[in-house]
Write a structure and sequence with these properties.
Layout (H helix, E strand, L loop, with lengths): L2 H7 L7 E6 L5 H15 L4 E5 L4 H13 L3 H5 L5 H14 L5 E5 L6 H14 L5 E5 L15 H19 L3 E6 L2 H12 L6 H5 L5 H5 L2 E8 L4 E9 L5
Parallel strand pairs: 1-5, 1-6, 2-3, 2-4, 4-5
Antiparallel strand pairs: 6-7
Helix pairs in contact: 2-3, 3-5
Length: 241
């Protein structure tokens, strides 16, 4: 749904792993939800949305706020007017387009294995999903990862698991990872000194498997003062920019 990214990637295709990079509270979840909503409402796709840090209820509230343009904080406190309630109902009726948008709360089992289990279940119950959203890889591990593994090793294992899942089922999987703020500052200085050219790659949390396996890695740099978000092409395999 972002025309500049769509025109360069030709959309997210089957068997691709797409990763957003952003700082803490940098809009990762909001952007993932925007991608998912566009895929569902505009492109008429089946969406399977996994949240590894928020409950399904909070995800749905965010989605309701997005499509109805009713303020999220007021939705959360249920202090909405009759007109807003009507707008909310109308918005959700418009979502019912013959395709599903399913939320899966995965806080207890944040693994690619859990995702695969749910893909199989919903394929039998309804139909195969067209796209998977995994929010986000920083909270993920795998069932096979050693319990004493370092945090970045767990994330790397999860990235490898998502990559294999995308290939096995022919699905685009869109996820996100957090950027280490201290690494950004250090690498910005190196860049200014002419010693570094791509600080986002160095600053991504986790091991190099994330960068190696992803088809597209897109950095997000929010500017709340200007109400803008800059998007940086970190890795754009099979794309032009």
């Amino acid at each position: 749904g972002l025309s500049q990214i769509d025109s360069k990637t030709f959309g997210f295709m089957p068997a691709q792993l797409i990763v957003l990079l952003a700082p803490s509270s940098g809009g990762k979840s909001v952007q993932l939800l925007n991608f998912a909503d566009h895929a569902h409402r505009v492109c008429k796709k089946n969406v399977l949305y996994f949240s590894f840090e928020m409950s399904s209820w909070l995800c749905k509230l965010r989605h309701a706020s997005l499509i109805s343009e009713v303020d999220y904080s007021r939705l959360k406190s249920m202090s909405i007017s009759p007109d807003e309630r009507e707008q909310l109902t109308k918005s959700f009726n418009e979502i019912n387009n013959g395709k599903y948008f399913e939320y899966m709360e995965a806080i207890e089992d944040p693994t690619p294995e859990f995702i695969e289990q749910k893909v199989r279940e919903i394929t039998l119950q309804k139909s195969k999903p067209d796209i998977i959203i995994a929010d986000y890889i920083g909270n993920m591990t795998t069932r096979a990862t050693h319990k004493n593994a370092k945090h970045w090793e767990k994330n790397g294992d999860a990235a490898e698991g998502l990559f294999k899942l995308a290939k096995r089922y022919g699905l685009p999987i869109v996820t996100a990872q957090q950027i280490n703020r201290d690494s950004i500052k250090e690498n910005r200085k190196r860049k200014e000194d002419g010693k570094s050219s791509a600080y986002y790659q160095d600053a991504a949390s986790g091991d190099q498997r994330l960068m190696h396996l992803a088809t597209y890695v897109i950095g997000m740099e929010p500017s709340k003062e200007d109400n803008l978000c800059w998007y940086h092409p970190v890795k754009m395999r099979d794309a032009w920019f």
